[in-house]
Amino acid sequence: MLTIFVLFISLGIFFLIGMPLAFAIGVSSLLSILLDPNIPLTLVTQRMFFGLDSWLIMAIPLFMLAGELMTVGGMSRRLVDFVTELFGFLKGSLGMISVAASMVFAGISGSSAADTAAVGSIVLPMMKEKKYNMKFSTALVAAAGSIGPVIPPSIMMIIIGYMTDTSVIQLFLGGIVPGVLIGIGLMIVAYLHASKGGDAYLSSKQKFNLKNVFKTGVKAIPGLGLPFIIIFGILGGIFTVTEAAVVSVIYGFIVAKFVYKELGLKDIPKILYKSAKLATIIMFIQATAFLFSWVLTANQIPMMLTKFITSIVDSWIKFLFFFDIIVLIIGMFMESFSATIIFAPLLHPVGKAFGIDSVHFGVVLMVGWAIGYITPPFGVTLFVSCSLTGESIREITPYLIPMIASMLIVLFIVTFFPQTFMWIPKLIR
Questions:
Q1: Which label site among 27, 124, 159, 230 has the fewest CB atoms less than 10 Å from its CB?
Q2: How many CB atoms lie within 10 A of CB 390?
């Protein structure tokens, strides 16, 4: 257990001194490995390479590229314009706009990081210009980006379905209501924050104008068409998730170049560089996270955790209670891809033994991971959002508290009142 003690203590120290997240995870894992002379150091590079050696992982840089094409090509901006007309008459509307835009964009990218980058690159400069509190704004955009994997299409939902032998179609449908609830909760937080502010949080529009809503909605239709292509393409078996990412890139290029006509050939090198740079950051975190996951697995932490649960749980309510706690804790320290691969096959049979529906299990798991996206020290959307504004994770953490609280309420609802969302997946059974 010395290695685990060193692993978590060093990780906590590195986070407190402000070490970049990927390096904190990687170095703490390396220190724990050095304590065991029987483990060759070559294993470090092997595990990190294995973490990226996946056909599915290739979707990440492609979705990043698609998101950047949408941003530069005008699609993301038109989506923001559309939701601005819907919510712009409210006080603190830019906060609500960022959440609503993230909910719409979630149906395009399927990635929390891409969602945060695409919407944040547009909304955060607007917030800065209006003199919003940028620490709060950075936190809000990160929280809104966490909706990405909950609303379909979702890469994580596909992984969960594969690991638990659950219908991906039903998981997709099961994520709709929780994703909307998270969005509503974040909008409420944004409104309450704005109600305490001054002139900076005045509405961006004087009044609701149905004509402008229709006008901006028509312009946004080409961008809104992509989610339907992706969802029906995947559900219809036309292409895989990675192939869907390729389709997103091609679709984004065609719309940006030939429909909106805002993409020039001179923009392509910059787009490739920016998307590759952001994807590299996320992929590096992914690589170190796999190393971190291996250390946990090698020390039999997942097995010990499963034995502990079965020894103290005697009802489905207690199981779900401990399941939520475990998912939240794991989400703080591990990226969701690795955590799903390790823990889903272990915890899913326990849940089935207590009569927990597999779709219910998967949706609860995904909402828990979504909270993990904005929970330090391992917060993927936090890292992306902070990279856009230059704010540090330590400084924005206090502003995350009400957002995490609103998401915890949604987690409680989907955990103990599954009928609130399970009626949609049941329609196709």
A1: 27
A2: 8
Residue of 315, 365, 319, 375 whose CA lies nearest to 343: 365
Whether the pTM exceeds 0.85: the reply is no
Question: CB under 8 Å to 92, separation ≥6 — which residues?
Answer: 190, 191, 193, 194, 195, 197, 201, 203
Q: Helices 210-235 and 75-87 meet at what angle, rounded to 10? A: 130
Q: Is the peptide bond before 269 cis (omega within 30 degrees of 0)?
A: no
Ranges under pLDDT 50 in the chain: 199-200
Residue 207 burial (10 A CB sphere; 0-12, 13-18, 19+): exposed
- Tokens 């059974």 — which residue? 429
Nearest to 154, CA basis, from 131, 173, 135:
173
Task: Parse the chain into domains and list their residue ranges.
Answer: 2-428
Structure tokens at 329: 């804790």
* Rounded-to-integer distance, Cα 268 and Cα 252, Å: 12
Q: Please report the sign of the dihedral spanned by the C-alpha atoms of residue 426, residue 407, residue 82, residue 248.
A: negative
Say if residue 320 is exposed, middle or buried (CB neighbours under 10 Å; 0-12, 13-18, 19+): buried
pLDDT tens-digit readout, 313-345: 888 899 999 899 989 998 887 778 767 777 787
